[in-house]
Structures are given as structure tokens and as C-alpha cells.
């Protein structure tokens, strides 16, 4: 098992991509801390994963420095080490550019970008100390998006935050490289999470989504988890500062594809 006895924190892991990553890590042998602000969903997710391996739920708002400090401390108390951090927690807020409220802009960036900074810095400080004491270097994986590059006019703050995550990934990777600590990101395209499930009931929306996806399907959270498992493993030991795009071919496309009619 490629992550056997590793300790991982996955933020925003109560559901969706975060839960899929946490599940894959547990199946690969890791001890996983699920971090979220939804206590009921977080506890339920941890209980589900305990049938497969070792998992713990810890409440933390990644936008709050004290919560992040407690998350790190509680993880170390429980498992004694942090080998992997996955910064997955994120929120969205939609409005046209001219109507977007300042408070909403701040709220989205505080979770999606500031939260990545706070968690990465806190965990990286511990990882550096581990290396200085003769231990193995860890790794950090950030959840970016194709919307770090592509824009949605009604998702100003989300797109800005994901662009920031990509640059934060590069900067942290360069800073931590001398310690052997790797920092990478994943840029998912259209993935079937709760936020996207409504397209199944809207043929026009589904047609529009598939027309920009050469593989003609929506991705599964487990496919993003597979990328995270690779980046967390020794197979990615020479990979740092990168964003791996998993989008079914959308980013290279400069036109739309023909979508067959459903039978």
C-alpha cells in the first residue's frame, strides 16, 4: 500500500472530492484526519472510512488561524506526525461582476486562498522541523481548478481564488524545495459532486457542459483522488511546483465538440 503508515490531513473532506481523496488515502494505508466545518457530515464521513482503515474527524475553519493551529496540534496528538496535507476546502458565491459584494469576495478568498496559506504554512513549519530532526520530508497538495486559468463571469471570487492557489503552490514549492518538501496542485474540470449533480436533471445544461469536454463525460471524484494519491506517493518524488489538470481534455479545446443525442 503506497501510503502505508503515512498521516494525512484532508480539509473540506466531509463530502465530494475531499471525501474521495480521504477514502483513497485510507485504502492506500494512510491514517487520515478529515477536517470540515460540517460536524454531522464530517463525523459520518469518518465513521464510513473507519470501516476501511484509520480515520478521525476534527472540526476546523481553515480561514481561522486558531482553528488551523488546533487542527495541527490535534493531529499531532492523535498520530504524532503529518506527512501529507491536502488543501481541498473551498466555497463558491455567484453574482455578476458589477453586482458582486465585497463581503462575499472576502468570504470566498478567506476560505479558498487564505485557508490554503494558513494550513500550508502551519503544516510546513512542522514538516521542516521533522526534516531538521532527521525525518522524511512531507508533501502538500492544493486543490486548484481549471478556473485558475479559465473564467466564469458569475464566479469572480472563486476564479480569482483558484488563480491565487496556483501561484501559492509555485511559491511554496520553491521555498520548501531545499527541505525536500514537495508542493503541487490539482486542477479539476467538471466533476460530479453535489454542486454539479443538478446538470443530470437539466438536459440543456448537460449538453452545454459536455460540448466543451472532449471525453464527453463528467469526471468522478475518485479520478481526482487518484491524482492526489500519485502526488502523495514516492512515485511523484521529483514532482513539485506543478498543477496537474484533470478535465477530460477541456483546457486544450478551442471549439465545442459534437455531443451525441442520448438514447
TrEMBL record:
Coiled coil: none annotated. Gene3D superfamilies: NAD(P)-binding Rossmann-like Domain. Pfam families: adh_short_C2. Residues 6-189 form the Ketoreductase domain. Signal peptide: none annotated. Keywords: Oxidoreductase. Belongs to the short-chain dehydrogenases/reductases (SDR) family. This is SDR family NAD(P)-dependent oxidoreductase.
